[in-house]
């Protein structure tokens, strides 16, 4: 697969929704396939909370893209046909400007001083990227979860620059329960003695335990009860493969392992920023209601929910479709039976692949 | 859907209207209406394979059990709703009719006629009817609320629903003199244009 990674610098900076601004910033992007001569085959993939620009294929270090089951040659989003772009979102920790990068004005690591970013800010920065790449209009902007919120926001904010949007396992706003779960995660990070009010990198420490606990809790919310039951049941962990002596059940071992692994590559300040962006998103914030928020939309919408997803359940997707239909927007809503709970949007299934492929290709 | 049936429905659907088709199947009727009448159409369907056919045809579709949710669409102003050969599968056909006529001023309903002579003949023989139009046995069929043309028209009159127009199809799927004259005995299917009084 023809893929390229690139760090793109925006010297012009960006004004953020919070009122703050970044005098300059960088976005780490990865692209797959080629832009055709008429520039009509560009697809923007927006990543979810802990994802990054590496959507598909295998990196030299063996890391497989987070949506490799869907994006690639002859896959549902076929990189032989489409020019696929994904960027690490602003505030992330995989190469784009974020709390762990250097503040160009002070020469020091941003840490807690990195401004609050929002879904709208991400979409605005992606729009700057769109212009930089010389893409007049995206054929398809797509994402799951927090990525789906970006796809929705794209269709609201830049209707003339997007033909179709795919909003998967997402909602027009985070629910009270979503915010509550995220706050527990953030609290565990803040209470880690190494957090040091967000300025830990300079001290050479990491709030690893707090971040790990946050991820363990998050991970539970991404899975369904049925899926956890099927995968782990009440099986005891084999004593040779225990991460530590405290562990009894397989599910405990799994969460310990996943949590630990997450802390190797993820920055705690980014965790806080990303969850804040997710909690803060409300498509109808500056409008009377969701109907009014969607009144500018002209792109065709494909909204998919998964029946085992209790974080952003199917009803949240249906609400978006209904508001779209009230605005006479061509829109479809489909519930798929994915066993993996909220994470279902990450995994290929025959029906899911067909629907994506047919929607983009039709 | 038979070509003739969809043509009758097509005649009743106004140009540029907003249409919802409950039990839209593979979306071919909506596709036809999009092409010929420039409608904005939405299909409602529960079968995944059929949903996929809709997406392929660029027909907007919503996965939904129509038994559970017609009311869900109440906030969207439709000009026209369609329910072709599905009403007899619903738990509450009378509620469904009224809900459809709340969604849109006018609706089209088509239904198989249990009064058709071949059905009566099967019943005379002491068996549940199995005809080309009702091909499945009693234990396989989804048709839980079959009725005759007379039954349906009585329901409409009881519910204050006005029959604006109707067409009766014979076994060939076309209009015929005899199916129009004595529909309750000779029509296999009734096609109704309804409006709330």
Tally of discrete structural domains of chain A: 2
Number of strands of chain B: 7
CATH architecture of chain B: 3-Layer(aba) Sandwich
In DSSP terms (H or I, runs of 4 or more residues), the helix count of chain A works out at: 10
From the spread of the alpha carbons, the general shape of chain A counts as globular
Task: Round the mean pLDDT of chain B to the nearest integer and report it.
Answer: 93
What's the arrangement of secondary structure elements?
The complex is a heterodimer of chains A (362) and B (197).
Chain A: E1 3-10, E2 14-15, E3 21-22, E4 25-32, E5 42-46, E6 71-72, E7 77-78, E8 83-87, H1 119-133, E9 138-144, H2 146-157, E10 162-168, H3 176-190, H4 208-222, H5 225-231, H6 250-265, H7 268-280, H8 290-293, E11 300-306, H9 314-326, E12 331-336, H10 350-361
Parallel strand pairs in A: 5-8, 5-9, 6-7, 9-10, 10-11, 11-12
Antiparallel strand pairs in A: 1-4, 2-3, 4-8
Helix pairs in contact in A: 1-2, 3-4, 3-7, 4-6
Chain B: H1 3-12, E1 18-22, H2 28-37, E2 40-45, H3 48-56, E3 61-63, E4 78-84, H4 93-103, E5 104-112, H5 117-124, H6 149-158, E6 161-169, H7 177-181, H8 183-186, E7 189-196
Describe the protein in words:
The complex is a heterodimer of chains A (362) and B (197). Chain A has 2 domains: 3-175 and 283-361, Rossmann fold; 178-276, Rna Polymerase Sigma Factor, Chain: A (Orthogonal Bundle). Chain A is built from 10 helices and 12 strands. Chain A has helices spanning 119-133, 146-157, 176-190, 208-222, 225-231, 250-265, 268-280, 290-293, 314-326, 350-361; strands spanning 3-10, 14-15, 21-22, 25-32, 42-46, 71-72, 77-78, 83-87, 138-144, 162-168, 300-306, 331-336. In chain A, α1 packs across α2, α3 packs antiparallel against α4 and α4 (208-222) packs across α6. The model of chain B has no long low-confidence stretch (mean pLDDT 93). In chain B, β2 (40-45), α3 (48-56) and β3 (61-63) form a beta-alpha-beta unit. Chain B has a 7-stranded mixed sheet with strand order 3-2-1-4-5-7-6, sandwiched between helices. Chain B contains 8 helices and 7 strands.
